[in-house]
Amino acid sequence: MTNKVERHPARPIYPTPAGLVASIDSEGKPNIMSVAEIFNLSIGDPVWIGISIREATYTHGLIKERGEFTVNLPTAAMLKKVLGCGSCSGRDGIDKFEKYDLTALPAKHVAPPIIAECPMNLECKVVGFHPVGDHDLFIGEVLVEHIDEDALDAEGQPDNVKLDPLLLLRGGFWRMGTKI
Ligand SMILES: Cc1cc2nc3c(=O)[nH]c(=O)nc-3n(C[C@H](O)[C@H](O)[C@H](O)COP(=O)(O)O)c2cc1C
Fold this sequence. Notes:
mainly beta; 7-stranded antiparallel β-sheet; 4 helices; 3-stranded antiparallel β-sheet; binds flavin mononucleotide; Pnp Oxidase, Chain A
């Protein structure tokens, strides 16, 4: 049997998807932030997801104020945009939609927009907030899911290969392997 080595844990659950979270300020200007601490919490009825966000981010205050956000799941090919949206702050007046060539589409039930270039978009209303160590957990009820028509298979179901999710795995980025 292989010997086990003890390590100090850091982001110990892997992989997680990278998402782009859109929020909006009181004047209607939207912002985007990259988020990899993103979880399914209640999967059927209701559908609740969690995102863990540091208080220092601009997005944190916007979501706390408005109580709404969208989660947009990029493809692996969008890595550069995800790195960009996670490396500067809307607080500094940066329009990340313009800077990273992303398109805001109106959502149906919430004020923050969805991001057209992401094949999957979730409209979320905040139903819970909990400080969790070095992040704060926002729990969002998913009111509706939007998916690109061309990311559906012949049966009208999401095609995971076409969704091509961007995965964060112990500090590095990966794309999905094969179905088993
Ligand atoms: C791939 C990636 C994942 C990230 N995940 C998170 C996360 O889950 N929580 C968090 O607080 N910050 C995360 N960040 C950092 C924020 O995206 C970053 O601080 C961003 O500039 C905040 O933007 P804002 O100030 O406009 O809200 C991540 C960054 C990258 C590149």
